[in-house]
Specification:
heterodimer; A: alpha/beta; Rossmann fold; five-stranded parallel beta sheet; two-stranded antiparallel ribbon; about 10% strand; B: alpha+beta; Alpha/beta knot; Tumour Suppressor Smad4; 2 domains; 8 helices; 17 strands; about 30% strand; globular
């Protein structure tokens, strides 16, 4: 069954696309849950910041992008990588610091990148993505091929100085950049009610001469619709926009965070609005898919995740003499 | 007898939906809403209101912020939050309105758009509203200066002006499979879009039929369609609605569907709708949008009925109320 167009100009949401959105969200969820287990078992060096709960944002946005488009990410970047098509085998290898990793094992969780997929990098610097996305937007405009750049950032990062610099520059140059705020309610452990002088990050867009909207980031269909319009607008040359997705992370700021700053009731409330279960219900209720169809997808994802871990664990660590290779760009 | 009470329901979520992207909707940020409420409070204080109850919200606090910056004004007015759980959804506005009705508030001031007032109207009973527009499509609320809104609401709550300054708005009751589900103040739209998504309706290619509670050309949104269909013999009686079927084979009319979004729309047929008349639909999968926002997801076999009712909320005619108060000498000493 085909579903009617959403909006005026974005790709229709048909059953195959809905199933793809579901599979991507499920892949992110299982990837993160496995990463959490492996981190607790001491297998992953450094930190991991899990994206579970926020899947609808990355998937709903990246569904409109191709490998020719760019994204910039942040410390909680696994979901963006998966949604943009980065190979999950290489991602796991990168988490483990192995040679087969997407950055040859030298980046780790917070620096996964794959420029061939337009994934310009997760980023350990809070607010570090804005200038990169604006630069990518400038490239996109210079190329003249209708590319766009998407900058994912969190509510805490919206208070950084680079937010002002990046959005201002994108605003005055009318660059094809979509700034996607993932407002999960907390900057590390500090609630937005304390750290922001406004309630909605979208309010700040007006100061840069661009539209700002707020959308339910737990509803992949709402994100798809809103991001689609913003991306089409950018491709048409109408400039940047800010899409704020209200979302929630199921785990702590980092693995090991005891989350004493939020209540169990709050977590239960958001778990009750789970984005993956929401899409599952939507499809089953409308007979677009059966429970068995979706269970089969879950099983397939589970096998892919297991395969990715096997692959990564079989990969060697980089040789010590390669410490400085692939680290610095060589200019002619 | 207790002092007159005025309620304030300021929706922190209004004015930032997708119509900023696909049309040219105004962003109403919460700092501006706070400034409006501050002026409302000063207006209320000036006409002798000493009790104000407001809807609490956990994520911004429009009222507490407005009050915190009025310390230099030595207010005699006391404002307190309603005792209610805060869910962070539209249900909060309905619950706040119910509580204000139970507390026998003399007037409720709302800040929001048609959507906000729709959910307030579900709970306010016969308490009159002064709706200040801070939303996107604003047929029900109007652009009112907060100071003036506060003065008018205060005069109504104190009984300084007569009931002749109140107007009862119509509403559209929505029944699904015979069960009343919800209601709208301005329009009900049957859309082919099967999911609520970003809620707003702006693309009429997915809209099949529209039911209006009022026909008014000087409005924005789907209600503008009705205005465009007015002919020389029709009147704009507020209790006459309209049922419009979109599609080829009829007239083409120009309507302002959203801020800055003006379209020519094919209308296959239309007919006026009298109070207590209803329209029935068997739309198959789709959604029902209330006052411009998709709210109800339908299954294939849903039967939807929309009935025009005269018993909507009472609304203060602010110019009339202020004129009556002026003539009665309330602004002189």
């Amino acid at each position: 069954m085909a579903i009617q167009n959403v909006g005026s100009s974005i790709q229709p949401l048909d059953t195959s696309l809905l199933l793809r959105l579901y599979e991507q969200m499920e892949t992110i969820r299982q990837f993160e849950e496995q990463a959490g287990k492996e981190f607790a078992a001491g297998k992953i060096p450094g930190f991991v910041h899990l994206y579970a709960g926020e899947e609808a944002v990355a998937v709903g946005v990246c569904a409109h992008l191709t490998d020719e488009d760019f994204i910039t990410s942040h410390h909680r970047g696994h979901g963006h990588c998966i949604a943009k098509g980065v190979d999950i085998r290489e991602m796991v290898a990168e988490l483990l610091g192995r040679e087969a990793g997407s950055c040859r094992g030298k980046g780790g969780s917070m620096h996964i990148a794959d420029v061939h997929k337009g994934m310009l990098g997760a980023n350990g610097i809070v607010g570090g993505g804005y200038p990169l996305a604006v630069g990518a937007g400038l490239t996109a405009r210079a190329n003249g091929k209708g590319q766009v750049a998407v900058c994912f950032f969190g509510d805490g990062a919206s208070n950084q100085g680079t937010f002002h610099e990046g959005l201002n520059l994108a605003g005055i140059w009318k660059l094809p950049v979509v700034f996607v705020a993932e407002n999960n309610g907390y900057a590390e452990t500090t609630p937005v009610t304390y750290h922001m002088s406004c309630r909605d990050i979208a309010d700040r867009a007006a100061g840069y001469g661009m539209p700002g909207i707020t959308v339910d980031g737990l509803d992949v269909l709402a994100v798809y619709e809103a991001a689609g319009e913003a991306i089409v607008r950018a491709r048409r040359g109408e400039g940047p926009s800010l899409v704020e997705c209200k979302t929630y992370r199921y785990y702590g700021h980092f693995e090991g965070d005891t989350t004493t700053y939020r209540t169990k009731d709050e977590l239960a409330f958001y778990r009750g609005r789970d984005p993956i279960l929401g899409l599952r219900r939507f499809m089953v209720d409308r007979t677009l898919a059966t429970e068995q169809d979706l269970d089969a997808i879950n099983q397939r994802v589970q096998e892919r995740i297991a395969d990715a871990w096997q692959f990564a664990e079989a990969s060697p660590l980089p040789a010590p003499e390669e410490t400085l290779t692939d680290v610095y760009v060589k200019y002619p | 007898m207790s002092l007159p009470l005025v309620g304030i329901i300021a929706n922190p979520a209004s004015g930032r939906d997708i119509r900023r992207l696909v049309a040219h909707g105004t962003v109403f940020d919460n700092n501006e809403k706070t400034a409006i409420v501050r002026r409302v409070l000063l207006g209320l204080e000036a006409v002798g209101i000493r009790r104000v109850a407001y809807m609490p919200e956990h994520d911004f606090g429009i009222l507490p912020r407005a009050l915190s910056e009025l310390h230099g004004h030595s207010l005699q007015l006391e404002a307190f939050p309603l005792e209610m759980p805060v869910l962070g959804t539209s249900a909060d506005s309905t619950r706040a309105a119910q509580l204000l009705a139970e507390l026998e508030a003399g007037c409720i001031i709302t800040l929001g758009g048609d959507g906000t007032n729709r959910v307030v109207a579900k709970g306010c009973g016969t308490v009159p509203l002064v709706p200040i527009s801070t939303g996107t499509n604003n047929v029900f609320p109007t652009f009112l200066e907060g100071t003036v809104a506060g003065i008018a609401a205060g005069l109504v709550a104190r009984g300084c002006v007569g009931k002749g300054t109140l107007q009862r708005a119509p509403r559209l009751e929505v029944l699904v499979n015979g069960v009343p589900i919800d209601s709208a103040l301005v329009d009900v739209v049957i859309s082919e879009q099967p999911f609520v998504g970003t809620r707003a309706i702006w693309d009429l290619s997915t809209v099949r039929e529209v039911v209006l509670s009022r026909v008014a050309p000087a409005t924005i949104g789907l209600s503008a369609l009705g205005g465009a269909l007015l002919n020389t013999t029709a009147d704009t009686n507020e209790h006459t609605g309209m049922h419009i079927v979109l599609g080829n084979g009829g007239r083409e009319v120009m309507a302002a569907l959203a801020p800055g979004l003006i379209k020519w729309v094919q209308v296959r047929e239309s007919r006026s709708l009298l109070v207590d008349a209803s329209v029935q639909f068997r739309p198959g999968a789709g959604t029902v949008a209330l006052d411009g926002e998709r709210e109800i997801e339908l299954t294939m076999n849903s039967v939807v009925e929309v009935r025009l009712c005269a018993d909507g909320p009472f609304v203060v005619n602010v110019p009339a109320a202020l004129e009556e108060a002026a003539r009665a000498g309330h602004f002189q000493r």
